[in-house]
């Protein structure tokens, strides 16, 4: 039986072997945007280089699946380069240009992303759930040369600037067929921009986090390394030779949207590096269809965002499907509650030992901390320990570092951190501090190397994995002619993590009609942002001396007398 000290020695030995001089994952310190940071020595230098290495390695395997469309690792390179050729020759896309993608998860989404980055251009991942107003903002901000998407979502992209070429791949499937290949080899630097991922902002409008080739590749390498290290350590503790474990193809059900870091970076880029079969599905989330796909495709891995896991596990026909292939489950978008862990253990016992989660953001472009296995069982409320290459610092309101055990704002640093917010230098300066420390906005503490997150990013609401900032909804509500004041808060929900609640003060003494307010909100806000709980107050909302609404009073978590400053 190994002691805690023995286990610690095993972990240290494994990291030394893997990351030390000559190791498979040898690390070194290099200059990254003016800062000395840890990187892997033997890494790919741009996405095309990484793509070629991975697709050639997994020849003979299926790669991207959607219903009857089945693209192999052998076929994918020719399709991507044909699309890159058409983007460049027919639409004039060159290095630095933007190509926006507005579509549901599909092989075409992935192909467009790679084709764009091969040209040195920047992919703009637009949230497919957004309204016309939100889509218009993203296009006005990034000014893409081309917008590519499916018919259903492009219908919401009205009033498009005439300078933007639009390609509807539902109506133009030939655009994604094999053909003449792009021969242009673009000189792409590691720190050149590759992707814009939108993230809700405290100013009420989405901000575009600009990620580099280095950041995306670092996400892939770092995540694979973390999993590899944990696997080797676990096998060593059991006395099992890692080389004796067969290399079988995993099958991932990719339900996380590709416009999220969990969908594109974790769901596609990382899994392609592992030679995984990536299965998409069409339409709204449907528990029965998810179960059907798990059975028919023999899915081994699934990340259940938000309430997806709950909806599948509570489905009346769950036991009629063969889900025995599912051996790995993880969560994204919100902390995996102990209740959900118990449910997974009950309904998917073969996956219970592999339950895990990570903490990160679009801005961090990586998994900052991760936890799984026995550590997760022992520390169910923790976000885990810092992953290789990530530094964590807890700071007070004056930007001073705090000792372990003290609560403060979480700051992280790595070579993967975003380049900045597209077209928003003020927000970039507020978020990326000196020495490229990234302010995460979350409040937490570190105890015995484990990170504990104690508060949402400022007043952010996380509903079914979607980040919602109340100020955007408040702005819409207060635009109503009969609304005097409005405050939006998150209310805990057992399945969705949180629900959106609106607290309204009307101009006159009329009674609040939630149905009318819902219609008003739906004109400019996506459905997941619409409040489902409504409260009317006849007196002004509580505010502090600076005029800000004291939301902790509204939720009953704090007395107003604590806010006299």
List keywords for this structure.
GMP Synthetase, Chain A, domain 3, 16 helices, Rossmann fold, single chain, 565 residues, 26% strand, disordered C terminus, alpha/beta
In short:
The chain is of the alpha/beta class. It is built from 16 helices and 28 strands.
CATH topology title of the domain at 47-212 = Rossmann fold
What is the CATH class of the domain at 47-212?
Alpha Beta
SSE-based structural type = alpha/beta
- Proportion of helical residues: 25-40%
Largest sheet: 8 strands, antiparallel
Count of helical segments?
16
Query: Judging from the principal axes of the Cα atoms, what is the shape?
Result: globular
Proportion of residues in β-strands: 25-35%
| pLDDT averaged residue by residue | 89
* Count of DSSP strands: 28
Stretches where pLDDT is under 50 for at least 5 consecutive residues are 558-565
Rg for CA atoms: 24 Å
Instruction: Measure the end-to-end span.
Output: 57 Å
- CATH architecture tag of the domain at 47-212: 3-Layer(aba) Sandwich
Structure, described:
The chain has 565 residues and is an alpha/beta fold. Among the domains are: 47-212, Rossmann fold; 462-563, ANL, C-terminal domain (GMP Synthetase, Chain A, domain 3), CATH 3.30.300. 30% of the residues lie in helices and 26% in strands. The strands form six sheets. Strands 15, 16, 17, 18, 19, 21, 22 and 23 form an eight-stranded antiparallel sheet that branches. It is globular and about 70 Å long.
